[in-house]
Structure formats: structure tokens, C-alpha cells
Design a protein that fits this description.
Strand order of the largest sheet: 1-2
Shape: globular
Low-confidence stretches: none
Helix content: 25-40%
Distance between the termini: 24 Å
Largest sheet: 2 strands, antiparallel
Number of helices: 3
Length: about 100
Amino acid sequence: AGAMAAGHEVRTAKLSEMTFNADFGQSSFRAAPTLEPDLKTFRDSLTWAEHLVLILPMWWGGLPAKAKGLFDRTFLPGYAFDPRQRRMGLPKPLLS
């Protein structure tokens, strides 16, 4: 509400309403499963965003499985990072 009151455009994604297979499976990054429509929409919004706010519960000290699946399926090489280029031993980030 505060961001909208300040004149910013806000997009939301409700993880509980998103439909996708949270299991990345046994494939490699080169043969990653095709993104479902909800994941494509999330990724488009992520690319558009200047800031990201995550609000989610903790489950036994970690993220819920569906949230982990969202990250596993969305933050892929070539989109979120470049594994061929290293900075201090880590893949070069592609999202700002």
C-alpha cells in the first residue's frame, strides 16, 4: 500500500494460486523443463521489477517446498546468472 501511495506500480504473485511443477526433476540445466504459464508470468514480472519483496512463511526453519520450486524453476542459468563468467568464485549475476 505504501509503494502504491508513493506512485509506484506494484505487481503481485500469489504462490498459493500459481500452478506449476515445483520439482525440477533429473534434467540438467541444458534440458530444463519448459516453464509453465504462471512461471513465465512470474519471470516477466521479475525482469520488470526494480525491487522484490517476498512474504512467505518459514517451514521448519526453511522455505516451503513450493517456494524452493519457484526459485529452482525460475532462476536458471542464462536468465538469473551466467555460470561461464565468475566473480570471486561465484557465477556472474544477470539480474540487477
